[in-house]
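Colleagues,

For the teaching module next term, I've prepared a clean inverse folding example: a structure given as tokens, and then the sequence designed for it. I'd like students to try predicting residues themselves before seeing the answer, so please don't circulate the second half yet.
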């Protein structure tokens, strides 16, 4: 199913997650809706509405889909994932998590797709993370030979990145944070852009630092980075008027 960039932006903005990881989760969510969602047809509009909802927790996810079922036109939810009352458990220890790539690849036979847990985890995460930084972290800790999936890499990096970001001041700026474990993390703080700080880089530390946090001064380099917007939530009945 084709999902427009506007839907990807709305999905990531509503749930307060990075747009690149939101796109991975949205592909998994779309697969779930196709197979397990509740479908309704609007003869007046010539469109389908597919929902993921429960009687107790209300509307979790909804998409409006074209008559052919090949294109999604709109995404809505009754709440962001961090506030969802539906219980989600992390994957079993030792399980290999998998998220569908943009095209082509099928999941490994021994993998699971814990998209609902990953959505709740990322929505609740107190930081945002650059996609390249996640790959860099995996190479640093895995010696360049890691076969970790993007889902497992995201979770592993998030725990370390969040701990490092907590050491950075609330004052707007770019900081380099030593985690005391051999890594230096670049953290961007600017609440005018987003309430969550952005961890945008990581590298091996060289030598010793008198302070665990230092402010990076880089004249001429803008702080602004591309992130998802923050569209209003379609709450309650309003979310269900689509079809």
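(Answer key — instructors only)
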């Amino acid at each position: 199913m084709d999902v427009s960039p506007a839907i990807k932006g709305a999905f990531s903005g509503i749930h307060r997650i990075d747009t690149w990881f939101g796109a991975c989760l949205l592909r998994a969510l779309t697969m779930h809706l196709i197979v397990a969602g509740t479908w309704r047809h609007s003869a007046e509009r010539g469109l389908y509405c597919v929902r993921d909802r429960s009687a107790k927790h209300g509307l979790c996810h909804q998409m409006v889909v074209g008559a052919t079922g090949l294109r999604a036109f709109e995404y809505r939810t009754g709440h962001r994932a961090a506030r969802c009352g539906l219980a989600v458990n992390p994957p079993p220890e030792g399980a290999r998590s998998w998220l569908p790539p943009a095209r082509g690849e099928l999941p490994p036979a021994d993998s699971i797709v814990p998209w609902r847990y990953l959505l709740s985890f990322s929505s609740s995460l107190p930081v945002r993370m650059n996609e390249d930084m996640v790959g860099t972290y995996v190479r640093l800790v895995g010696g360049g030979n890691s076969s970790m999936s993007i889902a497992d890499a995201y979770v592993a990096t998030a725990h370390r990145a969040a701990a490092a970001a907590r050491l950075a001041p609330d004052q707007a700026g770019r900081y380099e944070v030593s985690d005391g474990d051999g890594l230096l993390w670049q953290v961007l703080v600017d609440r005018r852009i987003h309430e969550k700080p952005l961890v945008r880089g990581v590298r091996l530390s060289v030598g010793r630092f008198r302070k665990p946090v230092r402010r990076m001064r880089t004249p001429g380099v803008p702080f602004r980075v591309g992130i998802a917007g923050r569209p209003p939530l379609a709450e309650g009945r309003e979310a269900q008027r689509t079809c």
